Amino acid sequence: MKMGDLEDINHHIHDRITSIKHMLDLSVIELPQNKMKKLGQELFALERLLEEFEKGVDQQKEQLKHLKELDEVFQKYLQDGQHIKDNIPPHMPRKKGPLKGSEPAINQKEAVEVPPAEKKHSKSFVREMEFVTMPEFESIPQYMKGRVTYEQLNAAVESINAAVAAKYKIVHQSIKTLNNHSRKLHQRFKDQETKDTKGQYFVVEDDIREFTQMKVDKRFQGILNMLRHCQRLRELRGGGLTRYMLL
């Protein structure tokens, strides 16, 4: 029942009560039989209207209760969404750069004026392995995943990125600025390079041991298989070494 219907019933009840009051004012004198009958009909009709009015009020109360419950649910969802937004895990993939088709247009004159040095990566640039997305993780065969979770896999990605960053920080530094241990590492890194690794970023198992807390064991090998499946790295063997090259 709508609010407008309740207002109409209210007006109708008011009119009925007014009519009954007029009859009662005349009750001091003896009323004819037909007037007494009409008074009874008015009272009966008024009782029916009151029942309908009470029913409408109950329906409005129930609707109000339902709306309050919906508001509480909405507020909870709003709080949960804000909590998720404020606590996004660091390993969650993030889009880098504008979406396809949204790049700002560059005219020919601007393209010519860009210095060649800006188009190349600086020596301090180090490539990072992108975190594995949930759809990619779910595409990995179960026999390959074993008990490794999504969070554990991306934690390994973070550790490998840390090893790559630490290695190439030494590689990009001048030998004169390095201490004895770092100089030995620098020489080792150079000795491990081949013509196939030129311009690429890679680590070996010794780098993982040197720069991270990860254990290089059977579980680690399983994680590498998963990352190869997700096309995050590939193996390059030679000289008794297995190089894990970032893609």
TrEMBL record:
A GO molecular function held by the record: microtubule binding
Keyword annotations of the record: Coiled coil
A GO-annotated cellular component: spindle microtubule
Protein name, per record: SKA complex subunit 1
Family: Belongs to the SKA1 family.
Coiled-coil parts of chain: 36-70
PANTHER family in UniProt: SPINDLE AND KINETOCHORE-ASSOCIATED PROTEIN 1
Renumbered residue ranges of the record's region Disordered: 84-103
Alphabetized InterPro entries for the sequence: SKA1 (IPR009829), SKA1_MBD_sf (IPR042031)
Taxonomic superkingdom: Eukaryota
Pfam family of the protein (one): SKA1
BP GO terms, sorted: cell division; chromosome segregation; mitotic cell cycle; regulation of microtubule polymerization or depolymerization
